[in-house]
Structures are given as structure tokens and as C-alpha cells.
Amino acid sequence: MGSIDKNRTSTAAFDRGNRPAPYPLPKTAYNAHQPVSAVVIGAGIAGIATAVLLKAKVPNLTLTVYDRHARVGGTWEENQYPGVRCDVPSHAYQLSFAPNPHWTEFYAKGAEIREYYEATAKKFGVDKHLRLQHEVISAVWETEDAHWHITVRDLVAGTESTVAAQFLISATGRLNNAAPPNIPGLDTFQGAVVHTARWDHHSAADILDNKRVAVIGNGASGMQVLPAVLPRVARLRHFARTRNWVSAAFNGGLTARAAQKGNPAGHAIPEETRKHFASRDGQGDYLAYRKELNATFHTGIAGFYAGSDANAKLRKDLTALISERVNHDPELLAKLIPDYAPMCKRLTPAPGYLEALSDPKVDFVQTPIARVTASSIETTDGQSFAVDTIITATGFPDNYTPAYPLVGRSGTDIRDIWGPGGRVGYPKNYFGVMAPDFPNYFFVLQAQGTPFSGTVPVKCEQTATYIAACIRKVQAQSYAALEPTQDATDDFDAVVEGFFADKATTDTCSSWWKQGPGPSRVTLGWPGTMHHKGDVTRTPRWEDFAFQRRKEAAANRFHYFGSGLTAREEDGDPDELTSYLVTADEVDLQTLHEGWTRGY
To answer: 36-177+399-549: which CATH topology?
Structure first.
């Protein structure tokens, strides 16, 4: 080996001209948990799930949840019509982190679901952050302070105020803002007209008992309300333009057909079962039962493919089921079987609905409505049906644009981009959670964010977890805001188009899953399953984002390094300083040094 010349110096190493000017770092310790603020709009399932998880996953967060209703619950607060209940088993229609062994019915009524989410909000402290009977009426992004400026109306006081928040999360859901049917003459009807989402319990007896009642619509709410009100009415006229594939109940392997035939409300869960599930000895059994139910929501994906053997078998099975439930009545069967593929739109279990159509009190009318008079409904073939009450079960608007102005970085209202006639014309977005030009704006389980497997509450948890990771990224480094790039959004949008190109959703049905009949844009779905979405979104692709730095970091992106110390060193707590040490049995090499909550 050659000798080293200790007297030799490197001009390149010590030439000040090749070295950067020292950056004046702040003297404060690195703080990964800078103060941040967030507003969540909506206190239904999505809003409560998001609020609970943001509270847990984002330290130093100031959180406010606005909802225009007087109670939490979202669609389960808004929809209170007779027979309203979830068609997913109760023990699968709950948050994974808040199992409830006390459900009283296999398919919970809307009131019990609402009470569950109200109790969950209280259990996890979200109730302290709620501002009920407050409606967001506009939101404008201000780049200068990197905040959303949100105007809120107090529906009790009638006053308006503006609040600022760094992050804005829309969790308003899809099943709200009732859509009354646009029928000529409806406003001239002299009897009661009530939408299922605007039900008046106090006048139910006056509008139902021994009355001639019309039910317009045969979506999920129409199929539920019809058998529920049938015993009370003198005559029921059911106006249904479309045909829907009615499925067996989503029963997780438990037989519910007997309950459907004898009791549209499903069946009660025995008290001894509830007590056992709630007991210490019953925890294992309850977990196994929850797994059994939830597993059924991750199967059957093959039936989504257009023209597949699985889809053909599904058509055959559903046809046989419908035939059996109408006692093989050929006239009814001819009116009920759709001409489009199953899974073009959501299957509807509808306990008791098909059986009710065979009741002699029911007129099943498929001819389109021409007009409503003071006392009747007239169809396009000239028939007139005298009625005393009209129940409109006509659902909700099929769009994903906010009901208020939402103005982004460039000064454009998102409704002028996504809305009908807008620059894009559909809710083009990134990963079903963000959109370019709208920094720090997120949405939960809306356009392109809903996988066609799994259960709604867990899907909300997935999205909320992703949002929390994005907020922590901004919080922990020298950023004020982030938004997806247009290129990344375009690529994701093309993937969505490609995924649904060979799916049954391209068939001729009209559905709230998509923009219109035939192979129109699928606006609801994530391009994959729930597990697919979980794996794909577990680690955000930061290269897909554009970031706005905080003002103090304008000169150097690593301003957040601070003094080179962390709060742990300053506090000097030995347990915190050695938090990376655990017992040998607790070591998990897969997650070692990766948990964001750990100090090392």
C-alpha cells in the first residue's frame, strides 16, 4: 500500500466557494406534530369514522364536525320512513374498532343504527367536536394563508360565520338531499305528498290508515316502505318504471328466507346470544361470528364481469329466487325480471317486497306517469288511479358535486368542473379522495372511492386512514398544503375507465353507480376490491403530489430539521428515549422502526 501524505490538502474540500452558505436553522427542536386544524362536513357513518380516526392518528389536531341535522347519523337520521333498515347484517354494518354485541336484530332498523353511531361518537370523544344544526354554505381556498375559509350557517340562530381550517374533509355521503320527482301536476295534489327521506311520524296515521296510497319508485326505500305500510292502507298503487334484480338477503350464510316470507322486518337476535357475545367468555365466539359475516362481502367478485359464466349463473339463480318469492306467478314474473345483467346496479334484498306484490290490495303499475291531478295519478296509457296519499320513494340526486360553492386554488368552483355541462362533466379525481387545484381537500367514500366488495364502515376507515397520513406528511415537514398533480389524476382516471370496461356495469341499466344508461361513466366505484384499495393506498405515492411550503421554509425545504434535537432529548424521559426497545417476544421485524407513533 502507498503511504498517505498527511500534509496534503484538498482544495475542493476546503474551498469556501464550493460550499453552500450556512442555513440559519431555528433553535427549536424538531416537532413532527405541528398544530393543524381540520373541518369535517357530515356526521353520518363517514363523518364519525373519519373524526374518530383523525383524532387518534393526527396529534395536535383542532377538529370541528359540522352537520345540518339535529342529531348524528347521516342517512339514518334523514330517512325515518316505516320499514327503514339496513339490508346488510348489523354485525357487519359497524366500525371494525367499535364492535357492538348488543344489536337487537339481524338487520338493524334505522333508529338503532343511528343510536350506534351516536354512542360511538360519544365513546371516542367526537361529540365534543360536533356542531349540529350548522350547514356549510361555501368554502374558498386562500393560498396566502393556506387555509380553507368556510362559511357556516347556524340553522337555529339564523346567523352566518366564517371559520378557517387548514384541511377540509367532505363526508356528506350520497344518500341525502332528497330528490322529489319531476311530475307534472304534483304540486296540485290535494292529499298528502311525502318523500321517504322527509317522513312525518306525527301524521302517519292520517295519511296511511284506510287510505288509498301510492308508492312511486322501487329502489331500496320503495321496496322497504311498501310492505311496511301495506297492512295499514285500504289500497296501494305501486308505480315502478324500472326493474331491479332482487337478491337473497345478505345473510352471511344464515338462512333468512323464512324470515323474509313471514316477517319483512327480519328476525330478532335472541337475548341470550347478545349476552354471550358481550361476555368475557363470548369474545372469541363473537369475533368468529363477525369474521363469518364479513367474509361473505369479499366473495362473488367474478359475477361483476360482463358475459362471464359467474354472471350467467347469478342471473339464473336470481330469476329462480324471484319466481319462488312471487309463487311462480307468470304475470308478475314478466313484470319483474330485468333485461340487463345482474350487477349492472346494486342488488336489492328487499325482504317482504316481492311477497307484497302478490297481495290483492296492491296494483303494480309499470306504465309511466303522465301527470298528477288533485285526487289521482294518470299514466301515459290514459288510466287514472284515485289516491289519497302519495309516497315518493324516488331517492337522491345522482351527483357528487357539493351542494355549496367550493372554490379552489385557481378560483374555480368545483361544480363548474364536475357538474353537468362543466369542463369535465363528471367527478374526475385522484384515488377517490382528492382533486387537483383543491389543496388539502378530501372526500370520503364518494366518487371513485367505493370498492365493490367489503362493507361501508370499513371502507370509510380506509379512506380516513389515508387522509390522516396525508395530514401527517404536511404536519411533520415544511409544508402548508398538498394536492394531486393533474398528470397523476389523468392516469388514475384512465385506470378507472379500463377497469370497468369489461364489467356488468356497462350494461343498459340506469344506476346511481354511474352517470346514465349503457356503458356510461362509472362514478361510484374504486377500480378494484376493498382489499385491493387497502393495499394500494397503504403508503401514499408522494411523487403524485404538488406541495406548497410553509412561508418560513421558503428558502430551504428542510427548515423543519430545527436544532437537530427532538422533544424527547429536551424532555429527557428515559422511557421515551429508549422506546425502540421492547421484550424479545414483542419484536416484529416487519414493522420494526416503521411505526409513525414510535420514537425511533
So the answer is: FAD/NAD(P)-binding domain (3.50.50)
Integer Cα distance of 227 and 244 in angstroms: 17
Mean pLDDT throughout 514-537?
Answer: 92
Cβ 94 vs Cβ 253: under 8 Å: no
Query: What residues does each domain of the chain span?
Result: 36-177+399-549, 186-247+307-340+347-392
Q: Please provide residue 342's backbone torsions phi and psi, each rounded to the nearest 5 degrees.
A: -55, 145
C-alpha 250/C-alpha 271 separation (Å) is 22
Q: Per residue in 181-229, pLDDT tens?
A: 899 999 999 999 999 998 977 688 899 999 999 999 999 999 999 999 9
Q: Do domains 36-177+399-549 and 186-247+307-340+347-392 have the same CATH topology?
A: yes
DSSP three-state, residue 36: strand
DSSP conformation letters of 362-428: EEEE-SPEEEE-SSEEEETTS-EEE-SEEEE--------S-SS-EE-TTS-BTHHHHSTTSSSSS--
User: In a 3-state reduction of DSSP, which class is residue 266?
Assistant: coil
Residue 6: per-residue pLDDT: 46
Q: Are 109 and 115 in contact (CB under 8 A)?
A: no
Asked whether the whole model's pTM tops 0.90, one would answer yes
Enter the C-alpha cell of residue 309: 359464466
Dihedral sign (CA 11, 12, 16, 17): positive
CA 14 to chain centre: 59
d(C-alpha 577, C-alpha 25), whole Å: 23
Alpha carbons 320 and 143: distance in angstroms, whole number: 59
Which CATH number, 3.50.50.60, 3.90.470.20, 3.40.1190.20, 3.40.640.10, labels domain 186-247+307-340+347-392?
A: 3.50.50.60
